[in-house]
Amino acid sequence: MNGNLLSLAQLENFLDETCDSLKGDREATEFKEYVIAILFLKRLNDRFELERVVRRNKLTAKGLSQNEIEEDLEKRESYRLFVPKIARWDRIKQEKQDLRSYLTKAFAEIDNMNRGCLGLLNTVDFNKVSESGKEYISNDDLVELIKDFEALELTDDHLAF
How far is Cα 142 from Cα 99, in angstroms, rounded to an integer? Predict the structure, then answer.
């Protein structure tokens, strides 16, 4: 087994540590949906980017121009699950000011572009506040969460499970 593969135990440990760093004096149920949402988003992006690389190589081998390649790479039907530009990891990790609203829009757009998601992604409310008016997850916590997930490669070839 390749030592670079992420095992299920390593992923579980990573998620536990990530949740612990966010938890503070809160209950895990207050933020676990966000950790799972970001895990899904990172996995979706990593798989999408890998598909794009493979597709780009095939289109280049066919002799298409750079413009034709770029146009083809943005066709929804070319992918199992399509990640719209707003939801791409490179864009998300650059968003620092209002990441909560940005992620809400990004998930809605993923859901819109991938009808197979059946509206499930729109159930995560990054702007949710408690009855006392406290945010369930702050913008700063989300920025840190994105940084935490940056190091993980979640393509099939990097997973041991």
Answer: 7
